[in-house]
Specification:
It is a single chain. The chain is of the alpha+beta class. The chain contains 3 helices and 12 strands, in the order H-H-E-E-E-E-E-E-E-E-E-E-E-E-H. It is rod-shaped and about 140 Å long. It starts with a helix and ends with a helix.
Length: about 280
């Protein structure tokens, strides 16, 4: 113990100088190419090789784990990005499909009926039913667009109904199947006049048909224009049932699947003329 204490003190005092000397010695040995030095280096490498291999394997394993974690993080971020992009593309796909459907509906609407020679305004059905009537449709155009009470509306295939109520931005259409609907029509093949009366059923009936008329199933019915309320020749429907005083009509338009409607800008409707005349008739 008495000898160890002075030796320990000397080592601690000169430890820095010893380390510098050892480093210089190793540098000199590395510069010498003698066979003895080479053998020493080879033996040293053989001695430390198992330890270096044992140490390198955990390091490589940890490196592989870190790389795998990075790959998983990247894959998760890429998956989130792809999901977001896929959702955005699906939204655009839905928009494209709706635009395609609207475009197809408008093309069919433009092809419906004859060339009436009148201007029209197109609106979209935004609600069904309601109000004092049973069979109605609400469209998103009104008086600001030139819509007037009594004007005829046309859908994909032909006549749908007439304008019953008008607001600034919306109008209510009375469908031809409504109980309150009355439409002057004629059988296109024979020219016989009649009145198409709705009764809230899918197939309205022909009334006031001439006794000499002999309607047949399959004949086409169009607007007659009597009374100046509607243009002449708008397709309405096809006769599907003929009985004793009971002639039924199937409308060309699917009234349960209305989308876009055209409101015909006729010169002056009979309803407007009648309403304008009423105040004058009441004056003394």
């Amino acid at each position: 113990m008495r000898l160890a204490a002075p030796i320990k003190g000397l080592v601690q005092r000169f430890a820095f100088l010893l380390l510098i000397g050892a480093a210089l010695g190793l540098i000199l040995l590395s510069r010498i190419d003698r066979p003895a030095v080479e053998r020493v280096r080879a033996i040293t490498a053989d001695i430390f090789e198992p330890m270096l291999t044992a140490v390198s394997q955990p390091i490589a394993f940890i490196g592989n784990i870190v790389g795998t974690i990075d790959d998983l993080i990247f894959a998760h971020e890429e998956n989130v990005r792809l999901r977001t992009e896929n959702a955005r593309l699906l939204q655009w796909q839905d928009v494209a499909r709706r635009l395609e459907q609207d475009n197809a509906s408008l093309r069919r609407l433009l092809a419906a009926g004859p060339d009436l020679g009148h201007s029209f305004v197109t609106g979209r059905v935004i609600a069904d039913g309601g109000g004092l009537f049973v069979r109605t449709a609400l469209i998103n155009i009104g008086s600001k667009d030139g819509v007037k009470k009594g004007q005829a509306t046309i859908g994909e295939g032909g006549y749908v109904g007439r304008v019953a109520e008008v607001g600034q931005r919306a109008a209510r259409i009375l469908l031809l199947t409504d109980l309150n609907s009355r439409l002057p029509v004629m059988i296109q093949e024979t020219g016989h006049r009649a009145v198409l009366a709705g009764d809230n059923s899918p197939q309205p009936k022909l009334e006031y048909l001439h006794a000499g008329a002999k309607p047949q199933v399959g004949q086409m019915v169009v607007t007659s224009g009597d009374g100046g309320q509607f243009p002449v020749g708008i397709p309405v429907g096809e006769i599907v049932a003929v009985g004793e005083g009971n002639v039924r009509l199937r409308p060309f338009v699917e009234l349960g699947r209305l989308d876009f409607l055209r409101v015909v800008q006729f010169e002056e409707t009979r309803l407007e003329a009648e309403e304008a005349a009423r105040p004058a008739a009441r004056k003394p």
